[in-house]
Amino acid sequence: MNLLKVADLTKDDIVALVERAARLKGLHKKGVPQSSLLGRVLGLIFEKSSTRTRVSFETAMYQLGGNAIFISGRDSQVGRGEPIRDTARVMARYVDALVVRTFGHDIVEEYALYSDVPVINGLTDLHHPCQVLSDILTVIERRGTVEGLKVAWVGDGNNMANSWIEAAAVLGFDLKLACPKGYLPDAAFLANACVGTKAKIEVVGSVEEAAEGADVLNTDVWASMGQESESENRILAFENFQINSAVLSLAKKDAMVMHCLPAHRGEEITEDVLEGPNSVVWDQAENRLHMQKAILETLLT
Ligand code: CP
Ligand code: NVA
């Protein structure tokens, strides 16, 4: 089994992952050592930068008794053009699972096709499933459930937005997305994600409409990795798509402000809101560790 996108999972799968992650978090806080992945090795192939995803996966392996090997695109033969299908087959002879962070989603799909061991998407241009699964854990820790919650997405219709869309569709919560024209989630992707769901997933006309009465306010950078050359144009297009105190005041009083990080203060989110009492961003970052453990155990044992 692979984990390439949230829609690879059922509602029961996600509930089980959240429960296991919460249990592992509790055991870790109590200092109870774990050894479920003793002798197992995780390979990480990253063609984009990372702090959280890399360190949380590596630490998760060590804390479960296993090991991890990090390979940056630059230093490996991947960076010199060795075909993905060759790399995937070779790596699968060494390691027990692979985390891949790359550009095109087709690249991670090709790894999965040719690898005999599970492939986990550590972020592509289209999806960031492990982040959103741990974000669901963060929400459930505070609210007990995601059912009946109103979630808002403000900003770019990017990989994070896509994974939130799939999470809403699978778990059945309402999601309102406010994105500038030209930066909406792909219409065909959105329509396809919504097939058969009872969730109300809609693109709305303004940030205010998305934020009104929201339980969760979510945003992400205006220019993602690989879009650096578009930064100047994006700063103009996204000017009014910011989570600030005025936007926060429209949401529920105890609304959670979420950001996968890294954040650009003064762009998609203001300093006061990021550092304020509604922000849960540091818990989100911590929960990456606990959710990665649950994902690894599920795929490897
Ligand atoms: N949120 C996230 O994936 O962070 P990194 O890019 O640091 O891994
Ligand atoms: N959308 C961002 C997320 C970073 C974790 C990016 O792809 O760069």
What does this structure look like?
With about 300 residues, this protein is of the alpha/beta class. It has 2 domains: about 5-130 and about 285-300, Aspartate/ornithine carbamoyltransferase (Rossmann fold); about 130-280, Aspartate/ornithine carbamoyltransferase (Rossmann fold), CATH 3.40.50.1370. It has 12 helices and 9 strands. The protein has a 5-stranded parallel β-sheet with strand order 7-6-5-8-9. A 4-stranded parallel β-sheet has the order 2-1-3-4, with helices on both faces. Strand 1 (about 40-45), helix 2 (about 50-65) and strand 2 (about 65-70) form a beta-alpha-beta unit. The model has no long low-confidence stretch (mean pLDDT about 100). Phosphoric acid mono(formamide)ester binds next to helix 2. Phosphoric acid mono(formamide)ester binds near residues 50, 53, 131 and 260.
Secondary structure topology:
Layout: H1 11-29, E1 41-46, H2 52-63, E2 67-72, H3 84-91, E3 97-101, H4 105-114, E4 119-121, H5 129-143, E5 150-154, H6 159-171, E6 174-178, H7 187-194, E7 201-203, H8 207-211, E8 216-219, H9 231-237, H10 245-248, E9 256-259, H11 271-274, H12 281-300
Parallel strand pairs: 1-2, 1-3, 3-4, 5-6, 5-8, 6-7, 8-9
Helix pairs in contact: 1-5, 1-12, 2-12, 3-4, 5-6, 5-12, 6-7
The structure holds phosphoric acid mono(formamide)ester (CP) and norvaline.
